[in-house]
From TrEMBL:
Location of this chain's protein in the cell: Cytoplasm
List of catalytic residues: 178
Keyword Cell wall biogenesis/degradation part of the UniProt annotation: no
Domain Semialdehyde dehydrogenase NAD-binding: 17-170
Keywords associated with the record: Amino-acid biosynthesis, Arginine biosynthesis, Cytoplasm, NADP, Oxidoreductase
Family note: Belongs to the NAGSA dehydrogenase family. Type 1 subfamily.
Main location: cytoplasm
Protein name as annotated: N-acetyl-gamma-glutamyl-phosphate reductase
SUPFAM superfamilies the record matches: Glyceraldehyde-3-phosphate dehydrogenase-like, C-terminal domain, NAD(P)-binding Rossmann-fold domains
UniProt-listed Enzyme Commission number(s): 1.2.1.38
Reaction(s) catalysed by this chain's protein: N-acetyl-L-glutamate 5-semialdehyde + phosphate + NADP(+) = N-acetyl-L-glutamyl 5-phosphate + NADPH + H(+)
Length: 366
């Protein structure tokens, strides 16, 4: 039995050399957990990186001291987290670099990583938007604007369910935003098949757990504000709006997205209100969603009237989609749920790695 197991691991291991920058953050911790357990990466421990400067919370220390939940034993060697240097990445022959960093830092480091021959999966919003009017919300500055524009043009929005073949060949994958993922996956099949009356507008009312804001506490994510509370924010201006417009092919007056902060650690639930364009029934809608996601193992379409809940997707890489059609046959409510740190961040990043490497899309994620 043991022999059969080790043979299976040996034949599956790829030898691919990966690295994670930002491993001390929430998304970085999930990436470390997923990559260490990934069947294709057995035998090649990823390089885990903290900040360049010595003051980092993650400067040269053990991964298990940083994230005790990842420890696989009570003693012995643990993967190291070392300060970020390009030389180290190069010396270790890094082929795929994950960046789980603030947007500005990603925008600065991605051009160099690509120039050094690495493929990059960036979890930030720095490279997701192609229309400069949408991207302006980030107020990013490029040392070499022309080079950044070329890189932006080549960046692929990392939603495997929509862009699988482009991701497979991409050097730079811009992992989607967490709210955006939940809303895009619910709407794309119905918009692409013309089932929604876009002139009547779509409302996406989304709610997220507090980990979506990252580990640094702010007045609005502090326990005393977030616990026992529910609050709206980012009305008319949240930076994920651009992702919705670009990925769904909508005009800005065709969708209203409002995020809310939920008093839970993780998970997103988006309730989406739309009008049907024709006489589609619940059967037609379910058939359209199922057919669109027939080859997408990380999307689970619920039967009509079976609405997803955060509890059922937390700690998984699934996006669950459910819906109900109004008694008038014209109004549609979709509910889309995911874990913001997994399908909304690190899980989707590993799903993209699988696609880039030609592996089974759900490997290491089930
Ligand atoms: N949280 C979520 O649900 C989602 C997050 N994202 C995106 O993923 C990225 C990471 O998010 P998240 O993990 O939540 O953020 P955190 O705030 O939890 O972690 C940020 C990480 O970046 C590191 N960092 C900060 N500044 C620098 C710098 N100048 N140089 C190097 N490292 C730096 C931090 O290191 P240190 O410990 O030293 O401070 C930490 O490791 C962000 O771009 C975020 O927008 C995307 C989708 C969902
Ligand atoms: C609850 C919460 O604060 N969520 C974050 C979105 C998290 C996410 O998807 O991150 P990026 O798009 O920044 O990568 C927010 O609204 O800013």
């Amino acid at each position: 039995m043991e022999q059969a197991e080790s043979k299976k691991t040996a034949t599956q291991a790829s030898g691919l050399r990966t690295a994670v920058a930002g491993v001390s953050g929430y998304a970085g911790a999930e990436l470390a957990r997923l990559l260490l357990a990934h069947p294709r990466l057995q035998g090649t421990v990823p390089t885990f990186l903290g900040r360049m400067d010595a003051n980092s919370a993650a400067g040269a220390q053990s991964l298990y001291d940083l994230h005790p939940q990842l420890a696989r034993h009570s003693g012995g060697p643990a993967p190291e987290v070392t300060p970020f240097t390009w030389e180290q990445l190069q010396d270790r022959g890094t082929e795929v670099l994950f960046l789980a960093l603030p947007h500005e830092q990603s925008r600065e480091w991605v051009p160099e990583a690509i120039a050094r021959g690495m493929r990059v999966i960036d979890l930030s919003g720095a490279w997701r938007l192609h229309d400069p009017a949408n991207a302006a919300v980030y107020k990013l500055h490029d040392a070499d604007p022309a080079a950044a524009a070329r890189l932006q043009a080549a960046a692929v929005y990392g939603c495997p369910e929509l862009h699988r073949s482009a991701i497979a060949g991409a050097s730079l994958v811009a992992n989607p935003g967490c709210y955006a993922t939940s809303i895009i996956l619910a709407l794309a099949p119905l918009i692409q098949t013309g089932m929604l009356d876009l002139d009547r507008g779509i409302i996406a009312d989304a709610k997220s757990g507090v980990s979506g804001a990252g580990k640094a506490p702010t007045p609005k994510t502090h326990f005393m504000y977030a616990a026992d509370n529910l609050s709206a924010y980012g009305v008319f201006g949240h930076r994920h709006t651009g992702e919705l417009l670009e990925q769904l092919g909508l005009q800005s007056d065709q969708i209203q997205f409002t995020p809310h902060l939920l008093p839970i650690p993780r998970g997103i639930l988006s309730t989406i209100y739309a009008r049907l364009a024709g006489n589609a029934t619940a059967v037609d809608i379910e058939r359209t969603l199922r057919s669109f996601y027939a080859d997408s193992p990380m999307v689970r379409v619920r039967r009509a009237g079976e609405l997803p809940q955060i509890l059922h997707v937390a700690h998984t890489n699934f996006c669950d989609i459910g819906f109900e059609v109004g008694p008038d046959g014209k109004r549609l409510v979709l509910v889309s749920c995911l874990d913001n740190l997994l399908k909304g961040a690190a899980g989707q990043a590993v799903q993209n790695l699988n696609v880039m490497c030609g592996w089974n899309e759900s490997e290491g994620l089930l």
